[in-house]
Automatic annotation (TrEMBL):
This is NAD(P)-binding domain-containing protein. Belongs to the FMO family. The keyword Ribonucleoprotein does not apply. SUPFAM superfamilies: FAD/NAD(P)-binding domain. It comes from the Bacteria. Keywords: FAD, Flavoprotein, NADP, Oxidoreductase.
């Protein structure tokens, strides 16, 4: 058991994963969760959850679940209620709930010598505690990215983070701005409830069916990953054969290759476009009352604009310098360790197609391995820090040229990332050679 004190902020999949990895390494930590229970955004009753009633996994069950804890379901793409139960069972099985204080919102982290003062509030009480290290697992999909537009819209504007139920769309002329995974899910909901549905897009997208050759598409081609260019060539050919060319339905032709941004795992949108239930519109030009003028000179009138414009990273309780922010994201080793090794660790700050919760668990194992080494065999931890400081950091792109967008700043290729995490963990576990022996 450790003598040092650690904190974990957040009891979502990442917070639970790190608590479990710490438990296995014999490290006790205190968890702080603002909401009333575990599950993070998969608990639709969590006030910070960005789930909506129709949401299901977009990565399939077997590629997403924790390896040591298979889901008690034979559904390929379970819905959020099943996933909430999964995290309940995970927390109960490994007795993780008792490690967390619920209803406890962390408001501030301040440097205190080698450690951190954590200030939190339960509403009734204020908490001030000192920890040697703090693991930040407060999620990456909670803080809306809201762009500004020319002109003024007099109807209702809502970000997808506030969308919960199709009743919010009933009887309205809806314009969805952006066609990411949430935007497309909500477009499909809207088709059945709104008076009309348009989607305004800036760029083209690749639409991946949930099933290919009768199997969940992300379970194909597992094992040894193909080089980026070969995979891009094969998969875009397969997609052309299965889903056709989205340009036929009004989408612009993508000016990038597949997997250079997150693919859209939704082909229902294409069906509805084919049925005329939904229309693709050009980029926004300007708003004028209830009219939206598009960049191609066309216009439309709407009651509700839904901003499917994504999320931005946010660690509001700690000064940016401590996380080495550069541009839209912290620049930290393997998306976890600030190069100053100041006792803060980022957990779950990865976006990747198919990384799943197991990928996040492996990240947690690396943190636990480092913290255990720091206490039990400081020379191994010292060697790890020195390597991080001295060498060029591993390439986590897997050879894909990700689009230079703010939301891609912390994007990684799952295979490259998991390989790098495995290598670093093995390096941390290797004994330090005695220079005299
Ligand atoms: C609609 C939708 C579909 C998705 N589908 C998939 C999918 O198919 N596959 C996949 O792998 N991922 C998917 N995701 C991504 C999802 O983010 C991850 O699955 C996972 O929830 C990330 O877990 P997390 O613990 O990092 O963050 P979260 O689940 O966001 O949990 C963060 C927790 O931190 C707490 N918290 C935040 N701030 C504080 C604070 N200051 N003090 C105390 N507590 C705090 C929050 O209350 C929350 O409980 C999807 C996301 C959405 C929105």
């Amino acid at each position: 058991m450790t003598t040092k004190s650690y904190a974990v902020i957040g009891a979502g999949p990442s917070g639970l994963a790190v608590m479990r990895a710490l438990q296995k390494a014999g490290i006790l930590a205190t968890g702080y969760e603002a909401s009333h229970d575990v599950g993070g955004l998969w608990d639709i009753t969590n006030p910070r959850s960005t789930m909506y009633s129709s949401a299901h996994l977009i990565s399939s069950r077997t590629t997403t679940e924790f390896t040591e804890f298979p889901m008690d379901s034979d559904v390929d793409y379970p819905g959020h209620r099943v996933l909430k139960r999964y995290f309940d069972d995970y927390a109960d099985t490994f007795r993780l709930r008792e490690r967390f204080r619920f209803g406890t919102h962390v408001e501030r982290l301040e440097r205190d010598g080698d450690g951190w003062i954590l200030r939190a509030s339960t509403g009734a009480d204020r908490i001030v505690e000192r920890h040697d290290g703090v693991i930040l697992a407060n999620g990456t999909l909670a803080e809306p990215q809201v762009p500004s537009f020319a002109g003024e819209f007099t109807g209702e504007i809502m970000h997808t983070s506030a969308y919960k139920d199709p009743a919010q769309l009933a009887g309205k002329r809806v314009l969805i701005i952006g066609a990411g995974n949430s935007g497309c899910d909500i477009a499909v909901d809207a088709v059945h409830h709104a008076t009309s549905v348009d989607m305004s897009v800036r760029r083209g997208y690749y639409f991946v069916p949930r099933y290919l050759f009768g199997r969940p598409s992300d379970t194909l081609n597992q094992g040894r990953p193909l080089p980026a260019r070969i995979k891009q060539a094969i998969d875009s050919r397969v997609l052309r054969a299965f889903t056709g060319d989205p340009v036929r339905f009004g989408f612009p032709k993508p000016d990038y290759r597949i997997y250079e941004t997150h693919p859209i795992v939704n082909t229902l949108v294409l069906n509805h476009l084919g049925q005329g239930d939904l229309r693709v519109r050009a980029d926004i030009g300007r708003f004028d009352g209830d009219t939206v003028h598009f960049a191609d000179g066309s216009s439309g009138e709407y009651d509700l604009i839904l901003l499917a414009t994504g999320y931005r990273l946010d660690y509001p309780f700690v000064d940016r310098e401590h996380l080495n922010w550069q541009g839209a994201s912290p620049r930290v080793f393997l998306n976890v360790f600030p190069p100053s090794f100041n006792g803060l660790y980022l957990m779950g700050m990865i976006e990747a197609s198919g990384i799943g919760w197991q990928g996040r668990y492996e990240q947690a194992e690396l943190i636990a391995t480092y913290l255990a080494a720091a206490e039990q065999d400081p020379a191994r931890a010292e060697r790890f820090r020195a390597r991080v400081g001295e060498r060029v950091w591993p390439d986590l792109t897997g050879g894909y040229r990700y689009l230079a967008l703010a939301r891609m700043a912390h994007y990684v290729n799952k295979d490259a990332y998991r390989r790098a995490v495995r290598t670093e963990r093995e390096g941390l576990l290797a004994p330090v050679k005695d220079p005299v022996a």
